[in-house]
Amino acid sequence: MITTLTKEATQVITGPAGKLEVAVSEPTGPERGALGIVCHPHPLHGGTMHNKVVTTLGKLFQGMGLVTVRFNFRGVMRSEGRFDHGNGELDDLLAVMDWMQQERPQQEIWLAGFSFGAFIAAKAATRVPVKKLVTVAPPVQHFPMRDLPPIPCPWVLVQGELDDVVPAREVLEWAEARVPKPVIIRFPQAGHFFHGQLAELRIQIEAALRE
């Protein structure tokens, strides 16, 4: 059970394409009785649950009192299966959510994702009940995010304006047109990976989530 784990424990669970590698972290702030799940960038471009933006989002959730899970999508490190262009990866996320809710029943779920992971988290938030959503550098140009139905939960979107992977203008135009619209946080001097600005990234997202 999650309640017996130490500050962080890595293990494998059963996923839809085989084993999924997950890292469960205990809260570092006062517990709020919620679960946080963080999704990593594109598996075919070096994305793993150890990405620095992903671990920053995980620490953010821990500090806000959430039991937090980072996990590797299918085909990444110890997770079995092959890349499935977002369809199977959504199933992976839903499997992690189901597992977490079995371990900690009746607790709300917060989702976060970076780049490709932002697409998967946003897609999940249109399918199942989610309390809060954080998307960092969502790949609007590269995946069918314009086709997503309305996202009903409170939602924070973060975009670096010097992003050379995800075109910032397209992301911001898409976000401004959404109904309901997310809280939009712009980083004028940040590229895709927020080098040198991860601490500020955490501070600004936490402030937005607490409002």
TrEMBL record:
Top-rank lineage group of the source organism: Bacteria
Domain Serine aminopeptidase S33 positions: 44-145
Gene3D superfamilies: alpha/beta hydrolase
Pfam families on file: Hydrolase_4
PANTHER family (alphabetical): AB HYDROLASE-1 DOMAIN-CONTAINING PROTEIN, ALPHA/BETA-HYDROLASES SUPERFAMILY PROTEIN
Designated name of the protein: Serine aminopeptidase S33 domain-containing protein
